[in-house]
Amino acid sequence: MSAPVTIPGTREQCAALDAVDPLAPFRKEFTLPANGVYLDGNSLGVLPVRTPEVVRRTVEEEWGRDLITSWNKHGWTELPYTLGDRIAPLVGAGAGEVVVCDSVSVNLFKLLTAALRMRPGRRTVLGERDTFPTDLYIAEGVTGLFEGGSSVLMPSVDDLDAYLDEGVAAVVLSHVDYRTGRLLDMAEITARVHRAGALMIWDVCHSVGAVPIELTACDVDFAVGCTYKYLNAGPCAPAFLYAAPRHHAVAEQPLTGWFGHAEPFAFDSGYRPAEGIGRFLTSFPSLLALSGLRATLEIWEQVDLREVRAKSLALTGLFIEQAQGLDVVTPRRPEERGSQVAIRHPDGFPVVQAMIERGVIGDFRAPDLIRFGFTPLYVSYTEVWDAAAALREVLASGEWRAERFNRRGAVT
Ligand SMILES: *Cc1c(COP(=O)(O)O)cnc(C)c1O
C-alpha cells in the first residue's frame, strides 16, 4: 500500500505532476468553486456533476410518475443492500456485509448495544477522549442502559493496553482522527482488542474514500461510516454499517423496526429479525438521499483506491512541507496519516475566515485547529501549492486580525 510518494518542491513540479496525474480525469466529474480551492471535502464532499440528473429522475420518474410501483419496478426495497454491496469494495468487505441506513450515530447505537449483549459479564465500552464526540455520547447513552455499564475514555489509543481488562465489551475507535488526521493501524489494534476478549468497532467516517480499508482482512467485528464526506453522496446522506458475517446470526440490535424484520411486508405482530445484514435496518432511508449516493457510487466504481492513497499522501506531504514553521499536529509519517492536515493556531478561527476570503476553503475545529482536507479526486497539486502559499501570506501579513473575520456562525 505504501507506494513511493513524490513530494513536489516547486510550483512547476506541481504542474508537471498534475499533467500526468492518473486521477485528473475525475475532476470534471465534480462541481467545483469557480474561483478557489475546496479543502473541506472531509466535512462535506462536493456535488458530482451527474447527481442532479439522477436525483431528478428519482423525483420525477420514480416518485412522480411510477409512484408506489417504484418499490418493485425501480428496486427501491433492495437499495439499502445493493448500495451497501457497492460500498463494500471501498472498505474491504464482501457482498451482504454492508448495509446503508440511518446516521453514523444511530448505527453506532445499534451496534454497541448488540456488542454489549454479545459480551454478557463485560460492561465497559472504551473510546478515545478526543474522538468525534457523537461516538462518545452514544457510548455513554448505550452503556447507561445496561446495569453496571460505563463508557471509559482513554487519553489516547496509545494507552489501550492499560485499559483493556476483562470488563471491556467493546472498543470504538476512529480509523482517522477528525482533528489531527492521525491514521490508526486497524489490523494491529483489532488483533490486540480480540486477544483481550472484546469486540472491535471502527468508525471509518474520515477514511472511507481516502484510505484503502480492509475490514475483512483485519478481522473487524463491526464498522460505521458516512457517505457525505469523501464519498460525496450529499449533505446528510445516509450512513452505512458493516457487520462481520460471523455475527449476523447472533447480533441483536435494539431498534427493531419493520425493515429489520425477516418479512417486512408480512406485517406480523411479532418481531423476527432478518437473517443477514438486513437485521441491522430499522426504517427505510430517505429515497431522495439514497439517489445521491447511487449517483456518486457510479464514480467510485471507476476509482483505484491505491491511486487515491498515493496522491493523498503526496498532497498532504506537500502541504506539510510548505507549512514549515507552523504547528502541524498531523503525523509526518505517511503510514500514520489520513487525508487531512491540521495546524494548531491560537487564532485559528479568524485565520480560516481570512483563508476563505482568499478562496481557500478549510475549516476550524475548536479550540484551536485549522483543518484542511485533501480529496485526491478533485484537488490538484498546484492548488495545494497555492493554498499553502496563501496560508503563509495570511499569517505573515496578519490580515486575519481584521474585525470581519471574527464573527462566528452556528457552524464553524
Ligand atoms: C462525520 C462523523 C460522524 C457523523 O455522525 P452522524 O450521526 O452521521 O451525523 C460520526 N463520527 C465521525 C468520526 C464523523 O467524522
UniProtKB/TrEMBL annotation:
SUPFAM superfamilies with a match to the protein in the record: PLP-dependent transferases
Keywords assigned by UniProt, alphabetized: Hydrolase, Pyridine nucleotide biosynthesis, Pyridoxal phosphate
Positions of modified residues (N6-(pyridoxal phosphate)lysine): K229
Function as written in the Swiss-Prot or TrEMBL entry: Catalyzes the cleavage of L-kynurenine (L-Kyn) and L-3-hydroxykynurenine (L-3OHKyn) into anthranilic acid (AA) and 3-hydroxyanthranilic acid (3-OHAA), respectively.
InterPro entries xrefs: Kynureninase (IPR010111), PyrdxlP-dep_Trfase (IPR015424), PyrdxlP-dep_Trfase_major (IPR015421), PyrdxlP-dep_Trfase_small (IPR015422)
Record's subunit section: Homodimer.
Catalytic reactions on record: L-kynurenine + H2O = anthranilate + L-alanine + H(+); 3-hydroxy-L-kynurenine + H2O = 3-hydroxyanthranilate + L-alanine + H(+)
Protein name per its UniProtKB record: Kynureninase
Recorded metabolic or biological pathway in which this protein acts: Cofactor biosynthesis; NAD(+) biosynthesis; quinolinate from L-kynurenine: step 2/3; Amino-acid degradation; L-kynurenine degradation; L-alanine and anthranilate from L-kynurenine: step 1/1
UniProt cofactor(s): pyridoxal 5'-phosphate
A matching Pfam family: KYNU_C
E.C. number(s) listed in UniProt: 3.7.1.3
Binding annotation for pyridoxal 5'-phosphate: S105, F132, P133, T134, D135, D203, H206, Y228, W258
Alphabetized HAMAP family for the sequence: Kynureninase
Regions crossing the membrane: none
Family (UniProt): Belongs to the kynureninase family.
